[in-house]
Each structure stands twice: as C-alpha cells, then as structure tokens.
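Appendix C reproduces, verbatim, an entry submitted by the partner laboratory led by Prof. M.T., so that reviewers can inspect both the input and the predicted structure.
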Amino acid sequence: MAASIQNSLKVALRKRMKQLLGCITPESRAKQSQAVTAKVLQNEAFRQAQRVSIYLSTSDELDTTAIICEMLRLEKIVFVPSYQGTKMKMVRLRDITDYDNLPMTKWNIKQPDFKESREDAMTNGHGIDLFIVPGVAFTRSGNRMGHGMGYYDKYLTQHAEKYPHKKITIMALALNEQIVPTEELPMDEHDVRLQFVVTENS
C-alpha cells in the first residue's frame, strides 16, 4: 500500500476514533476498566513478569490505576513513561506514594519529571519483561495504531536492540470501541505487533 494512502487512512481512523471515544460515558469506561483489570491480573504473562512498563492513562483511555496499584502491592518493578519533545524514556515508579505525588502535565496526565533522577529501564542493565501499551485503535490479531508520534514503536525497537536475548511480551488494553477490522488498520514495517489485546469482550 502506498505510504500516502496508508497515512491518509490512519489520519481518518484517528479522527473517527477520537469522536467515538469522546462519546463513551464515564460509567461505561469504568465498567470496562474494571473487567479488563481483572483479566490482566489473571493473565499468565502478567503474573510471570517482574519488570513491567505501563502507561498512566488519560480520561479517554481505559483506566490503568488499579493495575498500577496492584503491581506495586505485588512488589513488581514498575516503569512508566516520561516524555520530553520527541523523546520518551521508561522510569521507575517507586511506590504508591510516589505515584500519588507525580506532577500533572498540561494534558492533565500524571508524569514523572523528565529531568528527575530515576532508575531508567534502558540503562539499568535489566530492561523490561512486559510492556502494557496505549493506542488509539487495535485489531484482535494484534495490530496497533498509536497517536502518531511513534514513541512506543521507537522505544520497543531500541529495547530489542539493547536487550536482544530478552523475551518480552507486548500487551494492549482496549475499550470495546477501539477494536476495528484488520483491513481498516494499515500497518507499516516499523509498527510493532502485540501478543495480547485485552478488552472487556475478549
């Protein structure tokens, strides 16, 4: 598929998904978040993983707060993204107090300060076992469309280069409304595939 056609399809899909996600009621989002959280906590890849990267959700996304709290309770090593311009790094979240005290960005999302000194998953010599990634749209077969900045595709590629022998799992959490047919979600060569797409319905 020509790159220009593929890009225009992605732009159209992002626009449609933004309108769709804006129509989901807080009650529906909370109900789906609860169901997905329960499934993730039972997932074998999640249970086995010691070092987990997870995103801090926005009000339009499935709420990841309960999963983060449970991981900290289980004493897993939790990494969350910190952004600055085109750069993203995964830094350690120490405990629930640390989570509660994270500053808010202008987009009203909790995020560690990029300049703050924290353990960095890319440079600590251990990397990450499980990535729980955000996205705009997904297919049941593991295709993912992000927000268009390529943060995760770049990071996952760099992580694979840095830790070539490490077996990782990539999982997405999705609202039912974010699942689309495969033909509607074009994938580029550099787009990373997912092993799990967890929804209320799947």
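The longest helix spans residues 3-22. Additional entries are available on request from the coordinating office.
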